[in-house]
Automatic annotation (TrEMBL):
UniProt xrefs under Gene3D superfamilies: Vaccinia Virus protein VP39
Bias-annotated ranges (Acidic residues): 79-88
Amino acid composition bias (Low complexity), ranges on this chain: 99-109
GO molecular function, one term: methyltransferase activity
Family listed: Belongs to the methyltransferase superfamily. LaeA methyltransferase family.
Top-level taxon of origin: Eukaryota
Protein name from the UniProt record: Uncharacterized protein
Species per Swiss-Prot/TrEMBL record: Diatrype stigma
Length: 436
């Protein structure tokens, strides 16, 4: 089975050649000189139809080539799987993860879901994560993974983990795309993806497995075990970064690495800084609908206990580099990862405004992801956190959706809007000792 490659498909649709993609670097997040596509080309019926063909082909291949376990918990002990049916789906290089055993047996209730406002949510440790896990959200998560790969020149990580890591942990693995690609890229490694939702495929590379667990609960993994621990898109989920990163330190091998790849969702703009000037690189005006949206999400999550994104995490993922105690690097250093800390910042454009056609494609992807996810992101933070009625939420989203789509207008103050993707990594000292 060949996994569907959104990046290659999007490259074919936008006319980006492999050489153009491989030669691009966005180390500091700035635009790269190169070819361009006009907005008319991006918006053409032919290109839009091509994007639709990509999505349809991906969905069809996923339905044909991936078997989702119906009863067996991925990564846990279960004896109810249908081995005959699984055997008929055997594909070279892949195997079912349903037969692996973990440290405990799990009841079938682990597969239960809760439903609210027409969306499906995880049931295990219900309320720990406030966003849906249904098919629409899974597709959006896969698009987000492909978008980040395009932006980062196909790099899955930036920490220098060496050619032969042995144990890799992916926290908040979601659909498992990153974990499976790491398993293929590093055949020496045993890759474990952990998530609250059992939404990962059953047929995976033989060195990859998945576990349903809450990473903010005590871990059962051995101490000094992992060579590399990876976070991505978890900033709106983690409640206590200090405790979790100290736990990562405890379970990382001396010389091992932890890397955080997180998007700062409060929008910024190259042509507006919130003070009426257009010097560039400033926060969007606070009354802009997109800025209002993310502030409300922040407030709602804070009331639900996710202070890692609310009162505290609006700074860890900022670009200030001020060295304040609440920056991402300071969080890593405070947990003990004091050696060789690194930091990379990428700008994710919102919409097709960049001249460079790779970044233009990234911008189209990212705006689609944001617009498609407006409701999914807003429902629980606004309704449970801020106690809004459903009608008020939907009315609020109308203005936000219009603001995203109006970014194509040249005279729009947010027409060059972007969000920073901040990647930070730190190494546990070779003589690492557990912190008290």
């Amino acid at each position: 089975m060949v996994l569907f490659d959104w990046v290659s498909a999007a490259a074919r649709c936008t006319g980006i050649t492999p050489s153009e993609l491989s030669n691009l670097e966005h180390a500091d997040g700035h635009d790269v000189a190169g070819g361009s596509l006009t907005y008319e080309q991006i918006s053409s019926p032919e290109l839009q139809a091509a994007y639709g063909t990509v999505a349809s082909a991906a969905t069809e291949q996923a339905n044909m080539g991936v078997v989702i376990a119906d009863v067996a918990l991925i990564g846990y002990e279960d004896g109810n799987g249908d081995d005959d049916d699984d055997a008929s789906m055997t594909d070279a290089g892949y195997e079912s993860d349903a037969s692996t055993t973990g440290s405990t047996s799990i009841t079938p209730s682990i597969w239960d879901h809760s439903f609210e406002n027409g969306r499906r949510y995880h049931k295990f440790h219900e309320g720990a994560y406030h966003f849906p896990n249904d098919d629409a959200e899974q597709e959006r998560e896969d698009m987000k993974h492909s978008m980040v790969k395009m932006l980062c020149n196909d790099q899955l990580h930036f920490a220098p983990i060496g050619p032969s890591p042995q144990a890799i942990l992916d926290i908040g693995t979601g659909t498992g795309s990153w974990a499976m690609e790491m398993g293929e890229r590093y055949p020496s490694a045993s890759v474990l993806g952990v998530d609250l939702s059992p939404i990962q495929p059953d047929w995976v590379p033989p060195n990859v497995r998945f576990m349903v667990d809450d990473v903010e609960s005590p871990w059962l993994h051995p101490r000094d075990h992992f060579d590399y621990i990876h976070f991505r898109h978890t900033v709106m989920a983690i409640k206590d970064w200090d405790i979790l990163l100290r736990r990562c330190y405890e379970h990382t091998k001396p010389g091992g690495w932890v890397e955080l790849q997180e998007i700062h969702h409060f929008p910024m703009s190259n042509n507006g800084n919130g003070n009426g000037s257009h010097a560039g690189g400033g926060m969007m005006p606070p009354d802009h609908p997109v800025a209002q949206y993310w502030r409300r999400i922040d407030e709602g999550l804070a009331r639900l206990g996710v202070v890692g994104f609310g009162q505290r995490a609006s700074e860890p993922w900022s670009e200030s580099g001020s060295g304040s105690e609440s920056t991402a690097l300071e969080l890593l250093r405070g947990a003990g990862f004091v050696e060789a800390t690194g930091r990379r910042v990428f700008h994710i454009p919102i919409g097709p405004w960049p001249r460079n056609k790779v970044l233009k494609g990234v911008g189209v992807y990212w705006r689609t992801i944001l617009v498609d996810g407006l409701q999914a992101t807003a429902l629980r933070p606004l309704m449970r956190g801020l106690r809004w009625e459903r009608a008020r939420v939907e009315a609020f989203l109308v203005a936000v959706r219009r603001a995203y789509l109006d970014l194509d207008l040249d005279d729009n103050e947010g027409s060059q809007m972007y969000m920073p993707l901040v990647c930070v990594y730190g190494q546990k000292p070779l003589n690492g000792r557990l912190l008290s």
